[in-house]
Design goal:
It is built from six helices and 16 strands. The protein is α+β, with helices and mostly antiparallel strands. It has three domains: 2-54, Roll (Structural Genomics Hypothetical 15.5 Kd Protein In mrcA-pckA Intergenic Region, Chain A), CATH 3.10.290.10; 64-111 and 200-219, Alpha-Beta Plaits (2-Layer Sandwich), CATH 3.30.70.580; 117-190, Alpha-L RNA-binding motif (Alpha-Beta Plaits). The strands form four sheets. Strands 6, 7, 8, 9, 12, 13, 14, 15 and 16 form a nine-stranded mixed beta sheet that branches. It has a three-stranded antiparallel beta sheet with strand order 3-2-5, with no helix packed on it. The longest helix is centred in the last third of the chain and has 12 residues, at 208-219.
Amino acid sequence: MQNLFPMRINKYLALKKISTRRGADELVSAKKVFINGKLAVLGSKVNETDKVEVKGIDNKEYKYFAYNKPIGIETDSPEAGLFPLGRLDKASHGLLILTNDGRITDQLLNPKYFHEKEYVVRTLNKLRSNFKQKMEAGVDIEGYMTKKCKVRILSPFTFKVILTEGKKHQIRRMCANLFQEVADLKRERIMNIKLGNLKSGDMREIKGEELTTFLNQVLHQS
């Protein structure tokens, strides 16, 4: 990792799983980050031999929430100090996981790891007879072949799809390539976390066995 240095302080804290880069900037702005005993500023560089301290974060209590994002708002956290893992575009709705735990960001978003995400999609036009077969096999979206996925047809205009990757606007682009236009897109599940009957705009804390299972899957993967 030596050739990565010197590196910006926000990248360093993200690499150490202390926070996201954005969260690191907030910690620096709040005057909680020190390099070799001196207060860090935005853009400070860190060398490999430097001693970096983050005040007030050692006893941080990690929180995790399931949030039902409404249609029409950008992916963002409704609560200060929490950030969303992954995105849902403005026109989509459903499950987002919000947390202050920077350790799990890379594992959840890194394309080399596989995490199931389940969506219910309604189309404007009737699904073609070969739609399931073509969607499951993988679709060429602007030169990228999507990974195989699972599709279940629910009605002539509705299907469920389980993806293990998350390219930008992936489902909409896959559908467009197969001559289907998306009317509604809702994410219902990320790994073992389910949206359930959570109302639009509401949040619930993820805890107990549900949280243990989730963290085991995310943190203990090779």
